[in-house]
Design goal:
McrC; 3 domains; Restriction endonuclease; six-stranded mixed sheet; 32% strand
């Protein structure tokens, strides 16, 4: 665990998920009152225990930058190594969530996938709220025209040229009109249009985000036109010089995010940087690990093999004579059209507990299968892959150690899917032989 001071006076402690950390009560109190922010315990981000003059802080399942007070925050990292966090999030199709009012700086890099794009889109929509509330930036632009209904100042030279061509019913007039069709507004509108074209409504959260982004896009007047070739360079110059009027300071964050999107850039979720200021992302890593491995199996399953989520479409009644308690294994593999099953329980830990073992065997009995698998993170220094745990009353319990820190995650995913599908085929062969 390390502590780093921030330029704004905050202290950020880098800790691993589930790693307890001790603070003095004086660090989190002001005038005898606790300054702990309400979202900390309400959302299960951090767990707090008071012991005499100490506060014991234990991060929960969420990773990301979590503010404890206005001056103290915890940068919670996964407790096991992860070689490519963005890939894991994209594969799982999980949405990156944020904490309102909690910002952090990110390192800009190549746009890696849909999760980062959706996160940038959500930040852009949020950054556009003050613009919608306080108004678009407008400037006066000079407009000159030959007309029979002049407005503004009459240009003598232009009028005389028209009269020399016999246009005695018209004059050349010049006026200044206030317009919102400016580079900074055009890039904001173009960035919204870009994310709306790229986002995919694969979940309830993403569909809601698309609705919000579309509403923000429709708030721009039709007068704001399409993005022009020089708009990006002009907007970058405005951002660098902070040259907008003082009452338009709320524009800069939206411009920064829009430029990132339009340049096909993303952010690093693992490396620190100071390129762009966005909301702090948080995500439940226990749920992420489970969804990621289930999606890995679904993406590679052969035609006759179904991969179901036991929390939803794959669940059953646990007891034969009661319906109030369902059996909900994390993964149910079924060879169609037979009833040959293999159930799997996914645990983000390096060693399954006795309760995990009991749960897996219970689900095997409920699903009438002779094989259950406990899938967990590979422990440091341990060999990855499938290992037999034990047999009870004909039920084989297997362990599978998956290495999220593998340099080649694609090969790791392929090996995992192959091992799981082979277990189903083995079950099928044994049933046929019997």
């Amino acid at each position: 665990m390390t502590a780093r001071p921030e330029p704004d006076g905050k202290i950020v402690y880098s800790v691993l998920s589930r790693q307890a950390f001790e603070l003095d009560l004086a660090d989190v109190t002001l005038d005898g009152r606790l300054e702990i922010l309400p979202h900390v315990e309400e959302r299960g981000l951090l767990f707090l225990q008071f012991r005499k003059s100490k506060l014991i802080v234990t991060p929960g399942a969420y990773i990301g930058l979590v503010p404890l007070t206005r001056k103290i925050a915890f940068d919670v990292r996964p407790k096991f190594p992860v070689s490519n966090l963005a890939r894991v999030i994209d594969t799982s199709k999980r949405q990156l969530n944020s904490i309102p009012g909690a910002d952090r700086s990110y390192l800009a890099n190549d746009l890696s996938g849909g999760s980062v794009l959706n996160f940038l889109a959500a930040n852009l929509v949020d950054a556009l709220r003050p613009i919608a509330a306080r108004g678009l930036h407008k400037e006066y632009s000079c407009r000159s025209e030959t007309t029979s209904h002049p407005r503004g100042r009459i240009e003598i030279a232009g009028t005389m040229r028209g009269w020399s061509r016999g246009q005695f019913h018209k004059v050349q007039a010049q006026r200044f009109d206030q317009t919102s069709d400016l580079p900074v507004n055009r890039i904001l509108k173009a960035a919204l249009e870009s994310v709306l074209k790229l986002m995919w409504p694969h979940s309830t959260e993403s569909r809601r985000l698309i609705v919000r982004a579309n509403a923000s896009f429709l708030e721009f007047p039709q007068l704001v036109g399409s993005c022009k070739p020089l708009d990006l360079a002009e907007s970058q110059a405005i951002l660098a010089a902070r040259s907008l009027p003082a009452d338009r300071i709320y524009y800069y964050r939206a411009i920064e995010i829009a430029l990132l999107i339009l340049s096909s850039r993303g952010i690093s979720l693992q490396e620190e940087g100071v390129d762009v200021l966005l909301d702090s992302f948080i995500i439940n890593f226990d749920d992420l690990f489970e969804e990621y491995l289930r999606r890995v199996l679904q993406a590679r399953a052969p035609n006759l093999l179904s991969v179901k989520d036991g929390n939803f479409e794959g669940k059953r009644q646990l007891f034969e004579d009661r319906k109030d308690q369902p059996a909900q294994p994390d993964v149910v593999l079924t060879w169609q059209p037979t009833s040959v099953n293999v159930v799997g329980e996914i645990k983000y830990k390096d060693r399954p507990s006795r309760d995990d073992i009991n749960q897996a065997i219970t689900y095997a009995l409920c699903y009438n299968t002779k094989c259950a698998v406990l899938i967990h993170q590979c422990r440091s220094g341990e060999s990855r892959g499938l290992r037999h745990h034990g047999t009870i009353r004909g039920i084989r319990l297997e362990n599978y150690a998956f290495d999220l820190g593998a340099a080649n995650l694609d090969a790791e995913e392929e090996a995992f899917a192959t091992a799981m599908f082979d277990l189903v085929r083995m079950q099928l062969s044994e049933n046929v032989a019997a």
